[in-house]
Amino acid sequence: MDISVVLATYNRDEILAKTLLNFQSLKTDGLAWQVFVVDNACRPETLKLVSGFSESLPVRYLEEVTAGKNNALLRAMPEVEGQLVVFTDDDVIADPDWLLNLWSGAKRLPQFDLFGGRILPLFPEGMEPEEGIDLENGFTRSAYVIADWDLPEGEIRPGRIWGPNMAVRKRVFDAGYSFDPSIGPSQSASYTMGSETEFLLRVSEAGFRGAYIPTALVHHQIRPNQLSIDWLRGRAYRQGKGKAALYGEFDGYKHWFGVPRFLFRKLVTLFTKTQLCKLLGDSSRYYRNAIELGMFQGIFAYYREKNRPKDLR
């Protein structure tokens, strides 16, 4: 088996259907491949949907009752057979040559074990982001999963390999490495982000190297509710939690009640700035401050949860 594609889904059948329909158009001449759809909601409707593609795609439906994207990915790992394990999301629209280009790129780069490709946004037809949202802002590009690095094929740092378009040689998993189920998307709105990043950082430290394959392209479907500043602020909150969990850059600061002391003043200042920009109608500055506020609220929440007395958790 050449390629195993793995994606997790949770109660998003309409979006998943578009992705599976798109997979029918993939060029796979000469490839032995399989697709695993892991249902984290365990719905009979999703089983019926995926089963409906069994004659047109080499697809298998799996269930994982334990909440969390990484738990879903872990459910598929004992089943994969491909030399190259390709991870994606249930809301991508892939370029027809996506898998062929990942496979040929991996063959050209035998010294690398981790691969990332390009990801571009696909906005809902006739809809645009809310006023003030800056699509060139680094956070916005991350939130909309815009990974379009101006780089040639070759080595990249692990932080530039993103979940909707990520491939890992199976030998990495055979060496005992896998995903941390405590990090990543779950049914909780306040989950800690960074599931792929945590995995990639860990295996990179073990000596596995990453490469960029710019010809491997997928589009990420943006949903209408994701065009609002409120949604992006929630994303910033989760990213802040993930940043604190992965990098621990504020661990050395003086703490009050288990939280870095400077965060109390920081949150008051950012809240005041955000409300003032809103009152003045400065949508651009409001967006920047709202995102920064959400990020630091997430960092605050991480330390509060981490250092809360055990009997109060």
Tally of distinct domains = 2
Count every helix, treating DSSP H or I runs of 4 or more residues as helices.
10
At CATH level 2, the architecture of the largest domain is Alpha-Beta Complex
Helix content: 25-40%
From the helix content, strand content and strand pairing, which structural class follows? alpha/beta
CATH topology of the largest domain: Spore Coat Polysaccharide Biosynthesis Protein SpsA, Chain A
CATH class group of the largest domain:
Alpha Beta
Cα end-to-end separation: 46 Å
- Please compute the radius of gyration using only Cα atoms: 20 Å
Biggest beta-sheet profile: 9 strands, mixed
CATH superfamily of the largest domain: Spore Coat Polysaccharide Biosynthesis Protein SpsA, Chain A
Description:
Strands 1, 2, 3, 4, 5, 6, 7, 8 and 9 form a 9-stranded mixed beta sheet that branches. A two-stranded antiparallel ribbon has the order 10-11. The longest helix has 24 residues. β1, α1 and β2 form a beta-alpha-beta unit. It is of the alpha/beta class. The protein has 2 domains: 224 residues, Alpha-Beta Complex (Spore Coat Polysaccharide Biosynthesis Protein SpsA, Chain A), CATH 3.90.550.10; 78 residues, no CATH class. The model has no long low-confidence stretch (mean pLDDT 93). The chain contains 10 helices and 11 strands. The radius of gyration is 20 Å and the shape is globular. α8 packs across α10 and α9 packs antiparallel against α10. The termini are far apart.
